[in-house]
């Protein structure tokens, strides 16, 4: 006869003691604070080939080799249904550490939560593998997928002759991720080409993903319109202006980049609707994604959405793109002008920032 056992009570009793040292815990946890810190610090010794890659307004990013690699689920053999977990072996990862002296800020926790929620709900490419710690500063580090290509601005600089077919595909991929971020209940609020990362897969196809979200949904659509303009122009929005309050006032008053000559009309129409002055006049992320997919089909002559006029517009735009001087893009790119920073938006004027 099976005894009547209250498994809930047993589970709670076990969780009231640290699984590492057995110390009694005040709350239901797996380990005590001391053991957790020791486990995380031991993990810090697993990184080799540490290399500084970039510094933004709030964090530093390093490239490193993870000796053991992530846990992977593998079949026992090619024809076996039995699966087991094992380490995948050395792999390149990105380590992201806050610049502030606090050990673990609310913003960092929000970002980790955003990555995990989007990844598990929508199978996002923004993979957060876990946490580590800097043994010198005692600060928590996010361990993330490494995107070897860098940010999207680097791709636009290196590939100025990238065809419209590839550009539409990349924009649709980015908007799919942004749509998933919105579905998960987050907004980005710092969305630009510098926060879109890329790499190549095993077939040399481009893979793009959005980074740095959860720190700061209509404002994201406005920003996506600016990304579309940068895709079409090969320049950063408002590069001819100083990034100061005078520019901010002008943008609030309706200043927008001028569409580049030769850009397909259907593309310009979508772009300008994204940066409409009133948020309620902007399309949703789902609507933008669907329109981009339609433009891709038209450009690739996929029936039944094929349209001769639109195809000819993109074909003409491709021929004009081959004449673009890449040095002009490089000359307008000044990274220090585009690092995210906090500022007092009420200084000097009291206009509501309705972007």
From TrEMBL:
InterPro entries with a match to the protein in the record: Kinase-like_dom_sf, Prot_kinase_dom, Ser-Thr/Tyr_kinase_cat_dom, Ser_Thr_protein_kinase
Q: Which GO terms describe its biological process?
A: signal transduction
In terms of PROSITE patterns, this protein maps to: PROTEIN_KINASE_DOM
Q: Which GO terms describe its cellular component?
A: cytoplasm
Can you tell which superkingdom this protein's organism belongs to? Eukaryota
Domain Protein kinase, by residue range, is 47-292
UniProt-listed PANTHER family: SERINE-THREONINE PROTEIN KINASE
What is this protein identified as?
8861_t:CDS:1
Question: Taxonomy-wise, where does this protein's organism fall, top ranks first?
Answer: Eukaryota, Fungi, Fungi incertae sedis, Mucoromycota, Glomeromycotina
């Amino acid at each position: 006869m099976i005894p009547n056992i209250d498994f809930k009570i047993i589970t709670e009793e076990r969780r009231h003691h640290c699984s590492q040292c057995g110390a009694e815990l005040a709350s239901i946890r797996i380990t005590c604070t001391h053991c957790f810190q020791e486990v995380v610090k031991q993990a810090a010794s697993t990184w080799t080939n540490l290399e500084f890659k970039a510094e933004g307004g709030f964090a530093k990013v390093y490239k490193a080799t993870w000796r053991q690699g992530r846990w992977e689920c593998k079949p026992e053999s090619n024809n076996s249904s039995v699966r087991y977990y094992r380490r995948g072996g050395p792999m390149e990862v990105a380590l992201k550490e806050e610049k502030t002296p606090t050990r673990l800020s609310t913003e960092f926790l929000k970002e980790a939560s955003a990555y995990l929620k989007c990844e598990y709900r929508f199978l996002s490419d923004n993979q957060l593998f876990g946490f580590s710690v800097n043994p010198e500063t005692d600060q928590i580090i996010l361990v993330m997928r490494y995107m070897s290509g860098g940010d999207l601005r680097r791709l636009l600089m290196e590939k100025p002759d990238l065809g419209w077919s590839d550009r539409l595909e990349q924009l649709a991929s980015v908007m799919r991720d942004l749509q998933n971020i919105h579905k998960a209940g987050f907004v980005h609020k710092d969305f630009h080409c510098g926060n879109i990362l890329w790499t190549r897969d095993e077939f040399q196809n481009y893979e793009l993903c959005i980074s740095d979200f959860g720190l700061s949904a209509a404002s994201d659509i406005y920003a996506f319109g600016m990304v579309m303009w940068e895709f079409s122009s090969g320049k950063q929005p408002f590069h001819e202006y100083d990034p100061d309050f005078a520019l901010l006032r002008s943008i609030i008053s309706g200043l927008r980049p001028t569409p580049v000559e030769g850009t397909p009309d259907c593309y310009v129409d979508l772009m300008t609707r994204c940066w409409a002055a009133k948020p309620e006049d902007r399309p949703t992320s789902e609507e933008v994604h669907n329109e981009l997919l339609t433009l891709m089909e038209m450009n690739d002559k996929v029936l039944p959405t094929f349209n001769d006029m639109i195809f000819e517009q993109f074909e003409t735009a491709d021929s004009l793109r081959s004449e673009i001087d890449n040095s002009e893009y490089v000359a307008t790119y000044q990274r220090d002008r585009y690092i995210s920073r906090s500022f007092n938006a009420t200084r000097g004027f009291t206009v509501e920032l309705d972007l």
